[in-house]
Design goal:
EC number: 2.8.5.2
Order of helices and strands: HHEEHHHHHEEHEEHHE
Domain Cytochrome c: 52-148, 164-263
Subcellular location: Periplasm
Number of helices: 10
Helix content: 40-55%
Largest sheet: 3 strands, mixed
Number of domains: 2
Distance between the termini: 54 Å
Main location: periplasm
Number of strands: 7
Structural class: mainly alpha
Radius of gyration: 22 Å
Signal peptide: 1-20
CATH topology of the largest domain: Cytochrome Bc1 Complex, Chain D, domain 2
């Protein structure tokens, strides 16, 4: 009887401790939510939107052409309203599935005469990519509040989604990491930072619909290509090729999984 009482007492102590820890976690998460809400006022991303709009409408390059008069993002030449919410998608003129940044590179090359190779070759931290990030911020902002509509229908879209899914679960590198290591299970976090469960609709939306986003911690604007690169860095993978099929495939996987959820770009992160 004494032994049973001891066991029950231990169980009660453990339960009380678990409840206390749970309460602390809930309070911490509420604090983080309040912090994020406070950051929404005066999001510095607005400055990048203005820069991106100017880049979109101003003639540039050897051909002195404006993207607004020559670039088709999938809804017609110059149309930006709702375009980001339908990307990545297959484009007939390139016969490729493209995300926003790879499509912008195509437009810059064909319409403006700008060689994309130096932009692609530059490291993600170099200024060569700042033009693309600003354009992505502006164009993505034109889809804010619009539901994601990425439904792989073309065979190349389906193949890209399948590649993205395989890449998400692919384990490699010195620590045998995968995207799924952090984002492949419910209710996980690192240092109180919630990790969205990407295979679910809500989790995918959390990871997709708020990027591009301004990073308060380093004072930088990040596009989705930049965000994927940082995930590769944390997995100790080699730096991915900018606007490559691997990065587009991961975007396709996230975008299609978040289909129907509203875009919230540009976002702001810690």
């Amino acid at each position: 009887m004494h032994r049973l009482s001891t066991v029950l007492a231990a169980v009660c102590v453990a339960a009380t401790a678990a409840n206390a820890i749970g309460a602390e976690k809930d309070a911490a998460l509420q604090g983080i939510d309040a912090y994020r809400e406070a950051l929404q006022d005066g999001n510095p991303a607005e400055l990048f939107e203005l820069t991106g709009e100017e880049l979109w409408t101003t003639p540039a390059g050897p051909k002195n052409a404006a993207l607004s008069a020559s670039c088709d993002l999938g809804l017609g030449v110059g149309v930006v309203k709702g375009a980001y919410a339908q990307l990545p998608r297959w484009f007939a003129d390139t016969d490729r599935v493209q995300d926003l940044e790879s499509r912008l590179l195509t437009c810059m090359e064909t319409a403006q005469g700008i060689d994309p190779k130096p932009i692609i070759a530059a490291s993600f931290s170099k200024p060569e990519k700042e033009r693309l990030v600003a354009l992505a911020t502006y164009i993505s902002g034109q889809s804010k509040g619009i539901p994601v509509s990425v439904k792989p229908g073309h065979p190349k879209e389906k193949a890209m989604y399948d590649l993205g899914q395989r890449m998400f679960f692919y384990q490699a590198g010195p620590h045998d990491f995968a995207c799924a290591t952090c984002h492949g299970q419910e209710g996980t976090r690192i240092r109180m930072q919630e990790l969205p469960y990407i295979p679910s609709t809500k989790g995918a939306a959390s990871g997709w619909t708020s990027w591009p986003a301004y990073r308060v911690s380093n004072g930088q604007m990040w596009s989705m290509q930049t965000r994927i690169n940082d995930c590769f860095r944390q997995q100790r993978f080699p730096e991915p090729v900018y606007a490559s099929d691997v990065t587009i495939a991961l975007s396709m996987y996230m975008a299609a999984n978040s289909n129907g959820e509203s875009m919230a770009t540009p976002g702001i992160k810690r």
